[in-house]
Write a structure and sequence with these properties.
This protein is elongated. Helix 1 packs antiparallel against helix 3 and helix 5 packs antiparallel against helix 6. By secondary structure, it is mainly alpha-helical. Helix content is 77%, strand content 0%. The chain has 6 helices and no strands. The longest helix has 31 residues. It has one domain. It holds the Pfam family DUF2165. Keywords: Membrane, Transmembrane, Transmembrane helix. This is DUF2165 domain-containing protein.
Length: 162
């Protein structure tokens, strides 16, 4: 029973973390937009100044991308909160039922991983080379911490209790 409560609290923590990042981005929307713009325009790239593809200077695309990041962070947080509720409801259920109640946790983790690995690492890091600037490098490293923590916790939550 204690292990189940630990898992519930960890899923809750992931939800709160995702929501806090989304809310911080909303509270600092102009700064969030500036960050995305600096990554998309590939400003101040000294190490790899050329790209095989293109930089993005379209303000509408940058704004839409900023909102996609924030909304996906929010979605991940809300899904984790819903997953928490499902786990709480089944905390006293047999092991198989509790295991099935974890499914929303995996969906939430998938959305969160899409944000911090897919958007920040695959697109921001590999395509736009965001690691070349101090601002981009800080977010690049931070995003690894977020998605690695989420994956590690999700693997732990997935372990059977019986």
């Amino acid at each position: 029973m204690t292990l189940r409560w630990i898992k519930v609290l960890l899923v809750l923590s992931m939800g709160v973390m995702c929501l806090f990042y989304a809310l911080q981005n909303l509270a600092n929307l102009e700064a969030a937009y500036y960050f995305v713009a600096s990554v998309f325009t590939m400003a101040d790239h000294e190490y790899y100044p050329n790209t095989f593809a293109f930089a993005v200077n379209n303000e509408i695309l940058i704004q839409v991308s900023t909102w996609v990041i924030i909304l996906l962070e929010m979605l991940a947080g809300l899904l984790f909160l819903f997953a928490t509720w499902q786990l709480i409801q089944q905390r006293n259920a047999p092991a198989e039922i509790f295991q099935k109640a974890k499914s929303m946790t995996f969906i939430a983790a998938g959305v969160a991983t899409l944000v911090w690995f897919g958007l920040f690492h695959a697109i921001g890091g590999a395509f736009f080379q965001m690691w070349q600037t101090p601002l981009g490098d800080s977010a690049f490293k931070g995003s690894f911490t977020y998605f690695a923590s989420i994956l590690l916790i999700t693997f732990f939550v997935n372990l059977r209790e019986d």
